[in-house]
Amino acid sequence: MHRWLLKKGINIRYFMLVLVVLMIVLLPVTVNRSKDNTPRKQELSAGVLSEIPPAPPPGDRTEGNCVVTRDKENFAGKLPPAGPVEIIYRGNPDLMRVAITIDDGWNADMRILDLLKEWKIEWTAFLIGGRNLAESHPEFVKRIADSGGEVCNHTYSHSIMTGRDQAFVAGEIQNAQQAITRVTGKIYPYVRFCGGNCDAAALNWAAQEGYWVVNWTIDSEDTRKGITFEQQVNTILSSVRPGAILLFHFGGYNTYPVLATVIPEIQKRGYEVTSLSRVLEGTPYVLKNDKDKTDGGNDKSVSLFPVLPGVDENSGNGDPIE
């Protein structure tokens, strides 16, 4: 080797120096390939090869009428304050749409999910976060989402929201949202309180968290013992109008056969049977998309304590069936 180098007129010291530099440069690449034989991306920095750090996950974004997030822990502040601050009883009266909303989660009749999925119906669930529901059964949350449901907030413990302090109301909303969003990755700006009951303070605190409080237009009365299938169907079909929000429960009386009956009948009348978000399109009660947020997000003209519209005493109280 020595004689060959001399014969070629190559300086031995220069050759050895080049060889050492090549060994230093190529050694990290060899080590990176050793475990899985897969080359990793490299970058040259100050004459030394180092790995390019992985790109951070994309930030939260508004998609349709929800915030999509990869954050699994911190959900406070992801929604802009909700305004105008008032209880929602009905969607857009100018749209031939009717919303299916189903509450709680106890004693769920899974035929409901199968039906809505088979018929490709978009709909809305108001799911309880605690009490052995969303938090304990993420597979139930996933199945709701897979069936076409947008999973909204029904508080963590299903407590009545009157006479509560701000910490309690905010905690109920945030803890329920965490249980839901850990599965769905989505945050919808709607909450329904137990029985549709809340006072002005709770209404405003929900708005500060970014949520509109949603009640209903028509109660299926599937929590009332002794109610008959015929009575429920007649009540719903005689009251349907554009923008109506229908209330059902996962474990209600006759809920599955009632849905199977009224959905096609409502559709025959020219309505789209769909989700809460679809029914609220064209109203102030929807999230602005990312492009619109340059204007400052949702309407933030939040009144301090608005006068609450009266709750229909005949609309039912949404009590769970346990």
Shape: elongated
CATH superfamily of the largest domain: Glycoside hydrolase/deacetylase
Provide mean pLDDT, rounded.
82
Strand content: 5-15%
- What is the count of distinct domains? 2
- Cα end-to-end separation: 89 Å
Q: Name the assembly state.
A: single chain
Helix-strand pattern: HHEEEEEHEHEHEEHEEHEHEH
At the fold tier of CATH, the topology name of the largest domain is TIM Barrel
CATH class of the largest domain: Alpha Beta
Query: Which class of secondary structure composition applies to the elements?
Result: alpha/beta
Percent of residues in helices comes to 25-40%
β-strand number: 13
Largest sheet: 6 strands, parallel
Uncertain parts: 28-56, 291-297, 299-322
What is the CATH architecture term of the largest domain?
A: Alpha-Beta Barrel
Q: Which key terms come to mind for this protein?
A:
TIM Barrel; single chain; alpha/beta; 9 helices; elongated; three-stranded antiparallel β-sheet; 322 residues; 33% helix; 15% strand; six-stranded parallel β-sheet
Describe this structure in words.
The structure is a single chain. With 322 residues, this protein is of the alpha/beta class. The protein has two domains: 2-51, no CATH class; 61-295, TIM Barrel. 33% of the residues lie in helices and 15% in strands. The chain is built from nine helices and 13 strands. It has helices at 2-8, 12-34, 110-118, 138-146, 166-184, 200-209, 229-239, 255-268, 276-279; strands at 42-45, 48-51, 61-63, 66-68, 97-104, 123-127, 149-153, 186-187, 190-191, 212-213, 218-219, 245-249, 272-274. The strands form four sheets. Strands 5, 6, 7, 11, 12 and 13 form a six-stranded parallel β-sheet that branches. Strands 3-4-8 form a three-stranded antiparallel β-sheet. A two-stranded antiparallel ribbon has the order 1-2. Strand 6, helix 4 (138-146) and strand 7 (149-153) form a beta-alpha-beta unit. Helix 5 packs across helix 6 (200-209) and helix 7 (229-239) runs parallel beside helix 8. The protein is elongated, with a radius of gyration of 29 Å. 37% of the residues are buried.
